[in-house]
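quick q for whoever's on today - can somebody do inverse folding on this one?? i tried earlier but teh output was garbage lol. tokens:
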């Protein structure tokens, strides 16, 4: 019972708080793994490499923004290569566990994309360091750290949905202390720091967040832990984006249906307060699951619903007479659902099929005018994003692997020039040693 209550499923107390990978279920590694390297290259064809172009928001002499200053996506086809190198290792002692991984790469376009601000070379990096130290059977310290510097929005991460011109830097550190007060009762208390930063070509999208949380845990059965959470988060916005605060009151369950099937879920209320704007209250739900259906088939999924503070500064077309113009609004209430499912099926020792689907609908309300000329308040805008992919992985030798995949993205938006379709095909080869 001790291990069930105080297992590293408890680290999931921060699930969703740090906006890390929404598929993540923190099972602690059970054995050390030696240093493992991977080296590879992908060739990618993209039929809409820059589906949304940057927006000019400089006002004219009369304080208005012309519709002609808005540049749309160019539907620009491009062929690129993506070389990369990666490493991972796990070190376990009776007191301490280290789990480290990193991947560095680049994307090079043979023909520079036509979109304003585009370049032919972009950097790519992901680094994660997870650390757990057990002071005793009752007391432990855990730290999860992640850094990403990349071009594409990854929909399995809970922040960006819009395709920006350049790379973004996202980082987070989640640190907590767990204490088991009795055989059935334990607590986790921690703090999270995270940041999202873009280059000079993207304004009003940078964010810095600090948050604290406390989770109470009660072992109901050997397979089930009940949880109660309080979280507080404060976010600093950039440029036209306001600062805001969030309070979360959540109840949840962590249940292991079998040794290979795990569910972590929490539901409750979110209280969202925007500086200089209105306050909003929303239901809040987060859940993630993983199941090894059989030896060949693995499936995982996530769901999150609440108010998000990313991508909240948007341009709106104002149908003025005689000439429409563009105004910029900050939306204090962005209700967003994030739903994802992914699976992997091993056909044989040489062939594996994988695929996944992401769905992200959002509604923007409580908008206030921050640039241009238009109504002081605005709202009721919707944006839906579908992203689906399917692929094959082939094991040629013990060291050499090949992959081919197809990715389709569809965005339907009430905002100007944010609706697009995108197709990508990738062929890759990697070696692991």
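ok took a stab at it. sequence:
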């Amino acid at each position: 019972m001790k291990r069930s209550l105080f297992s590293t499923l408890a680290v999931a107390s921060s699930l969703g708080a740090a906006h890390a990978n929404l598929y993540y279920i923190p099972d602690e590694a059970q054995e050390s793994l030696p240093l493992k390297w991977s080296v590879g290259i992908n060739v990618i064809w993209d039929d809409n490499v820059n589906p949304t172009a940057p927006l000019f928001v400089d006002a004219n002499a009369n304080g208005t923004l012309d519709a002609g200053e808005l540049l749309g996506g160019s539907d620009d086809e491009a062929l690129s290569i993506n070389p990369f190198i990666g490493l991972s290792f796990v070190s376990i002692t009776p007191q301490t566990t280290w789990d480290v991984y990193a991947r560095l790469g680049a994307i090079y376009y043979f023909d520079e994309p036509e979109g304003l601000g585009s370049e032919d070379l972009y950097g790519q990096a992901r680094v994660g360091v997870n650390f757990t130290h057990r002071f005793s059977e009752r007391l432990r310290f855990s730290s999860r750290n992640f850094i990403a510097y990349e071009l594409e929005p990854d929909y399995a991460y809970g922040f960006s949905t819009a395709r920006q011109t350049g790379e973004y830097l996202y980082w987070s550190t989640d640190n907590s202390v767990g204490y088991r007060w009795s055989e059935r009762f334990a607590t986790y208390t921690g703090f999270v720091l995270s940041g999202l930063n873009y280059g000079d070509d993207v304004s009003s999208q940078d964010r810095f967040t600090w948050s604290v949380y406390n989770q109470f845990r009660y072992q109901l059965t050997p397979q089930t832990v009940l949880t109660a959470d309080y979280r507080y988060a404060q976010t600093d916005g950039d440029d036209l984006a306001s600062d805001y605060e969030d309070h979360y009151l959540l109840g949840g369950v962590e249940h292991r249906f079998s040794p290979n099937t795990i569910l972590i879920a929490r539901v409750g209320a979110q209280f969202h307060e925007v500086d200089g704007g209105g306050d909003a209250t929303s239901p809040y739900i987060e859940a993630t699951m993983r199941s090894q259906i059989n030896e060949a088939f693995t499936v995982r999924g996530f769901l999150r619903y609440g108010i998000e503070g990313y991508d909240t500064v948007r341009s709106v077309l104002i149908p003025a007479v005689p000439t429409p113009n563009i105004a910029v609004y900050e939306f204090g209430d962005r209700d967003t659902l994030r739903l994802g499912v992914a699976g992997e099926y091993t056909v044989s020792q040489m062939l594996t099929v994988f695929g996944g689907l992401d769905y992200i609908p959002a509604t923007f309300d409580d908008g206030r005018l921050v640039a241009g000329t238009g109504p002081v308040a605005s709202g009721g805008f919707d944006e839906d994003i579908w992203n689906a992919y399917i692929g094959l992985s082939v094991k040629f030798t013990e060291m050499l692997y090949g992959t081919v995949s197809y990715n389709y993205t569809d965005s339907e938006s009430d905002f100007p020039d944010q609706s697009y379709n995108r197709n990508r095909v990738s062929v890759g080869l990697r070696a692991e040693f």
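fwiw The first helix runs from residue 2 to 5. also The chain has a mean pLDDT of 87. so keep that in mind when u check it
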